[in-house]
Amino acid sequence: MAIRDEKKQQTRQSLLDAAIAMVATGRSFASLSLREVTRDAGVVPASFYRHFRDMDELGLALVDDTCQQLRKLIRAARTTQAPGDNMLAASTSTFLHYVNANRSAFHFLLRERYGGSAPLRESITREVRGFTIDLAADFAKFPHFSQLPRDDVEMMATLLVNTVVSALGELLELPMDHPDTQGAIAKTLTDQLRVIVLGGLAWKPGTKLPMG
Question: Is the pLDDT of residue 212 over 80?
């Protein structure tokens, strides 16, 4: 039974890997056919249906597998560091390393976030929201944040997650395998996140901007 389960998991992963490899060439996920994916995965088309109902379900599995693993890694990075700069730096470093190791998957996520099918767009939106919920929950454990209104903490978490997501396109275009480049990217992104956190802690509703 264990051997059969392992082989089934390998076939599933082969299908996912084949789809990711194909979209890495610049194709949209919607343009992929089931027969192409199974051919590149080295399995017969009938095997596909033992794992997925259709191509949309395979796409949803790609979103889920990529994002769920990143969420686990990011939360682990935050919980093993003291609150403050170390936590932000650890989270940013973990994110960059994971993206660098899964560049094709993140190209897929970026492309499908706005241009994919409705099920894929909705799934990616839910995953982004999941990162925000996780971050807000982690923030609430620390004294400075626990004293803030819940809406303010969620707003700060939303800004942080959106900043990281917005940087993703640029990150994927840069040679992240170069240590100096990756270090510069990590510092810039960490500084941006620090500005948001420091500003959020000092912000009060109704405060006027010191301009004019």
Answer: no
